[in-house]
Amino acid sequence: MQQNDAQIYYTTDGSVPTVDSTRYYGPLFMWDYDFTITARGFMPGFNSSDIVSATFMKKWKIPGDVNRDCSVNIIDLVAVRNKLNADPLSGDNWQMDVNEDGKINVLDLIMVRNRLNTKCP
């Protein structure tokens, strides 16, 4: 059963959303920093929905900067080496799949090596 009267409200400060929070109308502007959205649905005559949260992280500006310090360096190279053949979908391993081919392998190491000493603009 579809209910068109439901409204979604969200916060970005970690507080619990209420009907006084920001109402969701559509796609959100992607901020220039990491943030967490906490959302909850409301519909007259019904209990409010469960509270859900999702964290969005700005993708680093330099491929190979896996620790997101705005510099591709030996620390990034060692981090990728330590995760060789690990599951990129486990934990935060996705950061080590530098070439985004679904694997953490020597190709990712090569990409990081080729970008050593690159810094954010």
Describe this structure in words.
It is built from 2 helices and 4 strands. Helices cover 15% and strands 17% of the residues. The radius of gyration is 20 Å and the shape is elongated. The mean pLDDT is 88. The chain has 2 domains: 50 residues, no CATH class; 41 residues, no CATH class. The longest helix has 9 residues. The chain has a 4-stranded antiparallel beta sheet, with no helix packed on it. α1 runs antiparallel to α2. It is α+β, with helices and mostly antiparallel strands. It starts with 6 loop residues before the first strand and ends in a 7-residue tail after the last helix.
Provide the fold topology.
Layout: E1 7-11, E2 22-23, E3 35-42, E4 52-56, H1 74-82, H2 106-114
Antiparallel strand pairs: 1-2, 1-3, 3-4
Helix pairs in contact: 1-2
Short note summarizing the structure:
With 121 residues, this protein is of the alpha+beta class.
Q: In angstroms, what is the radius of gyration?
A: 20 Å
Major sheet size, sense and barrel closure: 4 strands, antiparallel
The percent range for helix content is 10-25%
Structural class of the helices, strands and pairings? alpha+beta
Which properties best describe this structure?
121 residues, alpha+beta, 4-stranded antiparallel sheet, 2 helices
